[in-house]
Amino acid sequence: MAKQDRAIRTRRMILLAAAKVFEERGYQAATISEILAEAGVTKGALYFHFKSKDDLALGVLDEQDSHFVVPDRACKMQEIVDAVMLHAYRLQTNPMVRASVRLAMDQKAADLDRSGPFLRWSNVIQQLLEGAQARGELLSHITPARTADVFVGSFAGIQSMSQTISDYEDLMGRVSDLLRHLLPSVAQPSVIASLHMSGSRGAVVHEEVERLQEHDPSALAVG
Amino acid sequence: MAKQDRAIRTRRMILLAAAKVFEERGYQAATISEILAEAGVTKGALYFHFKSKDDLALGVLDEQDSHFVVPDRACKMQEIVDAVMLHAYRLQTNPMVRASVRLAMDQKAADLDRSGPFLRWSNVIQQLLEGAQARGELLSHITPARTADVFVGSFAGIQSMSQTISDYEDLMGRVSDLLRHLLPSVAQPSVIASLHMSGSRGAVVHEEVERLQEHDPSALAVG
Question: Mind listing where the DNA-binding region sits, in residue ranges (chains A, B) (predicted)?
Fold first, then answer.
């Protein structure tokens, strides 16, 4: 294994350990010693990659969206639906994404800047909405930046409600309901009629992304 | 002061202290000793009102909606808008409501049942939607229970995003944006056209409720 690959793997192991400890203990209570013990790496290795607990938390926060990709579609609104459904699917199945979202929603981590995921997700959705607007898919009065914030904020709450009530079991149904309430205020009726947004959409898109990443990475738009 | 009044006041002081400690330390890290010190009451007084830390937390969670009232309106959709705007206003101005909402959103308080506020708010909104439906204010396909869940979940996330990005300074604008995106999928256009939902609506309704509670409590519908 090349030196660089090893460094990437070590960084990943440390982040996974940090995510686990933040999730179990909360950001405030978690300590670097606990993260070291969980990761099973040396203090030197940890400090080579991360300067502080804050730095580790920002690394975990990055994980929910930094590798975010969605397949290109003729209809840009479908890309937005796919992005939302894929994120919901990853929340259900990927412990790292789950830990990152919980950390972003930790209103008690007062000294940690948790705005990153909100702002980056809003930026991704805004760009997709601008693409949809350029293609005439949106209603005429829409301001992409404000609509993007509504999508991101409301999704954050829907996932939190689903986690609280059913530990994410009812997440897909709740996300479908949210989209059915938001889209008629945003997109042209003919566009909405063409959208795929059933509960299984997230899993379908996830498999498609995995396949494309292996065989045809150029077909993936980086968010 | 009558014995009962004194008991109510003591209970309230303990809840305020608990809210403050949960807010500062997080639910998991908070201890009953800290709450005792903050409240300045005896151990006996605390245990007379609350059996455990869990019990204290449920008391704080109750506070965000148990005294919830909104003035009667001819248009039921206006009552829903008023309920949402009033809650946003109380979040900005009332430390107890703020602490209660943060505790409900604390995804790390794993052993605490935080579903209460979600379910009770959803129930309040569902009842108002059923009233609106009976008056013909809603679009024909609406299922009040599912739409209520979308309102409650999305509001929870919008407030969290506002707290994270601006410490609630931009809350009213974000809540207005959310309502403008949800209402067209729920209510008849002629109903929406009649609604008051500017950023100052929460403060206006709050003053009205205070006035009515003093002079004409029967005009307030308990949620």
Answer: 31-50
Query: What residues of B are in contact with residue A161 (Cβ under 8 Å)?
Result: 118, 149, 152-153, 156
- Which residue from A108, A149, A181 is facing B147, i.e. has the nearest CB? A181
Query: Between chain A and chain B, how many beta carbons pairs sit less than 8 Å apart?
Result: 138
Nearest partner of B185 among A199, A79, A189, judged by Cα? A189
Residue type, B66: S
- Asked if A186 is an interface residue toward chain B (Cβ–Cβ < 8 A), one would say yes
Task: Sketch the domain layout of chain A as residue ranges.
Answer: 3-62, 64-216
CATH 1.10.10.60 matches A3-62:
yes
Contact A154 B149 (CB under 8 A): no
Pick the CATH number of B69-222 from 1.10.357, 1.10.287, 3.40.91, 1.10.3470: 1.10.357
- pLDDT 10s digit of each residue in chain B, 223 long? 577 788 888 998 999 999 889 888 878 888 999 999 999 999 999 999 999 998 998 888 887 766 677 899 999 999 999 999 999 999 998 888 888 888 887 766 667 777 888 888 999 999 999 999 999 999 999 999 999 999 999 999 999 999 989 989 999 999 999 999 999 999 999 999 999 998 899 999 999 998 988 887 777 765 4
Q: DSSP assignment, residue B113?
A: -
pLDDT value, residue A223: 46
For B79, phi and psi rounded to 5 degrees?
-65, -35
A152 vs B: CB within 8 A: yes
For A109: left if phi > 0, alpha if psi spans -120 to 50, otherwise beta; the answer is beta
- Distance between A43 CA and the closest CA of chain B, angstroms: 26
CA distance A148 to chain B (A): 11
Element holding B208 (H helix, E strand): helix B201-215
- Average pLDDT of chain A? 89
Contact B117, B74 (CB under 8 A): no
Establish whether domains B3-62 and B69-222 are of one fold.
no
Among the ranges given (A69-83, A146-160, B54-68), the one the predictor scored with the smallest mean pLDDT = B54-68
Neighbours of A51 (CB within 10 A): 10
Residue among B126, B154, B178 with most chain A CBs within 10 A, to mutate: B154
Tell me if B213 sits within 8 A of B222, measured CB to CB: no
CATH number for the region A64-216 comes to: 1.10.357.10
A160 and B185: CB-CB below 8 Å? no
ipTM for the complex shown? 0.83
